[in-house]
Design a protein that fits this description.
13 strands, 11% helix
Amino acid sequence: MMRSVVGLVIAVLGSWGVAFADMPPPWSEFDIRSPNGHYLAEVRATQKPEGAPRWAWKYQLTVFDTQPARRQLLWSCDYTHDGYSNGFLSDDGYTFVYVNFWYEQDGPVVSLYRNGKKVGIVFGREFNVRDSALKSTVSHQMWLDELGSPNVRFIQRGPQALVLEITTIDHKTHLISVESGKFVKP
């Protein structure tokens, strides 16, 4: 009897986790700090037409240097918000990257912003993730490596070249130039 109850609890909690993972996006404004804590990225709605749904609003990405006594504007640009509140800000404050944890073969999964411009979009198909490797949820597929830590990070290649490193669920590592938004050859 006790074994049945424990099994039922595990099944309910497991299904709750999948349902929670597939909840609709909140479309909220959000902040992201650089790993070194020196820079702050803010995503804010700039146009909220009356009665319009949040996905129809216009959003702005603004990055501040927080080291002076008063924070100073570093750069700003229009932001393509997909409803989820996450991203990665580089330690120099010049690059912001949004990585969608949901996989879409023909949709943007990585968006790169650098020094006031959107420099690139990478579509799911460009990562060549095997369909059999994708992890399905109730309504989506996950494509990032959950075992590795971290699965998305900035790395320095040489004195000037900052790249974004992404490890996919099939344990392949991909490098993307933050200057061009294009894949870097090894």
